[in-house]
Specification:
Elements (H helix, E strand, L loop, with lengths): L3 E6 L1 H5 L3 H10 L3 E8 L3 H7 L9 H8 L4 E7 L3 H9 L12 H5 L8 E3 L3 H11 L7
Antiparallel strand pairs: 1-3, 1-4, 2-3
Bound molecules: adenosine-3',5'-cyclic-monophosphate.
């Protein structure tokens, strides 16, 4: 699965109706989409997904936000997918995101930053398995 990564189009971007534009950008950048679905996470599911951040000052706000509305979860395929997707997303804080990145264009704050991506191949496998069964990956 080293050519796979995991991505989320977060509730802020879905609320703003930007999911179509973001998916188009993903396809234009040469990613294959191996899995995709619209979900509305419970607070508990969001807490489980972001468990590595438990105890940090922004954890409660992050879990409230991620369970505040529907989001799009995706398994993305490309050579060097983890880095390629992080490059397309841009810096976590949109104020620091480079021109041409998704967060520069679509994010409004460090908390509501439009998209998520795995930070390593190991976490990509864990995060894909958190939301997708094998049958849901084409
Ligand atoms: P994400 O890549 O989804 O992983 C953890 C998220 O926590 C991050 O994007 C941010 O949206 C969110 N977050 C909120 N506040 C902070 C902060 N001060 N530092 C880092 N991440 C933050």
């Amino acid at each position: 699965m080293s050519n796979l990564t995991f991505g989320i189009i977060k509730p802020d971007a879905v609320r703003a109706g930007k999911q179509g534009a973001i998916i188009q950008r993903i396809l234009d950048a040469g990613f294959g989409i191996r899995g995709m679905k619209l979900i509305h996470q419970t607070r508990k599911q969001a807490e489980g997904f972001y468990v590595v951040h438990a105890g940090k000052g922004f954890f409660d706000e992050l879990c409230d936000f991620m369970s505040s509305g529907p989001c799009v979860v995706m398994a993305l395929e490309k050579d060097g997918a983890v880095k390629a997707w992080r490059d397309l997303m841009g810096a976590t804080n949109p104020a620091e995101a480079a021109e041409g990145t998704l967060r520069k264009e679509f994010a409004t704050s460090i908390g509501e930053n439009a998209v998520h991506g795995s930070d390593s191949e190991e976490n990509a496998q864990i995060e894909i398995a958190y939301f997708f069964s094998k049958l849901e990956l084409v």
